[in-house]
Amino acid sequence: MPVLVITGTGTEVGKTVTTAAVAAAALAAGRSVAVLKAAQTGVRADERGDADEVARLAGPVTAAELARYPDPLAPGTAARRAGMAPVHPHEVAEAAAKLATEHDLVLVEGAGGLLVRFDAAGGTLADAARLLNAPVLVVASAGLGTLNTTELTARELGARGLELAGVVIGSWPGAPDLASRCNVADLQEVAGAPLLGALPAGAGALPPTDFRAAAPAWLAPRLEGTWDAEAFRIREAP
Q: Which residues catalyse the reaction (predicted)?
């Protein structure tokens, strides 16, 4: 798995922190890691972007982004409003492939959900994943509504012939409600793929040293972690 594409079921689901956790676990396992942010939006030129945040939390990764747009919008819309060139899927794929020649693992983080548009032609992260022939990790929220968005994302991946590596819950609450607890089992069913982790709410606010030490415990062995999905399901079962 030299390239792993990471998408969310929407915005604010914990995608960047999950990317950092995957990077931290891989680094702890002795792998070299690069993180590629396909398109950064809503950040000024002098501000830290998502790739920078991953590096801050995870440690010594190669952090790169292809484009940055000031408005907090879909990349294609943000590029048009700024009068800047958009990012195209083939550019994302080419950059990731180059990084893969120099690193053991390349994490390609999208913007928002799988079908958020990069350009006027309707290019998306899914198109970049297809060009890379790379598996896709889906980051989902824990609570009510997540089953619908997760299943829609999984169906779209399947329709495009893309591999869904699994699902990670991007922010698991300290006091989960009934819907969240039921979703632990249901997410795997609607996705047709394994649950590969659950990050505690507020993980991104941890000091980097604590984040790096804890990250493997949040992720399943496929992501270089020690997290046990069945034990988690039994513990959180309603």
A: 37
Is 112 within any annotated ligand binding site?
yes
pLDDT of amino acid 32: 98
Taking CA 196 as the corner, what is the angle to CA 188 and CA 226, rounded to the nearest 5 degrees? Answer: 140
With a cut of 50, list the residues of the chain below it in pLDDT.
Answer: none
- Specify whether 37 is catalytic: yes
Phi, psi torsion values for 223, nearest 5 degrees:
-105, 25
DSSP class of residue 207 equals -
**Where does 101-225 have alpha helices with state H?**
125-132, 146-159, 178-191, 208-214
pLDDT score at 96: 97
Residues 63 and 50: their CA atoms lie apart, in Å, by 9
The answer to whether 52 is a known ligand-binding residue is no
pLDDT at 1: 64
Within 13 A of 17's CA, how many CA atoms are on the CB side?
Answer: 27
Class of domain 3-236: alpha beta
Active-site residue, selected from the candidate residues 37, 117, 130, 212: 37
* The model scores a pTM over 0.90: yes
Q: How far is CA 186 from CA 7, 30, 114, 195, in A?
A: 19, 34, 21, 10
- Is residue 15 part of an annotated ligand binding site? yes
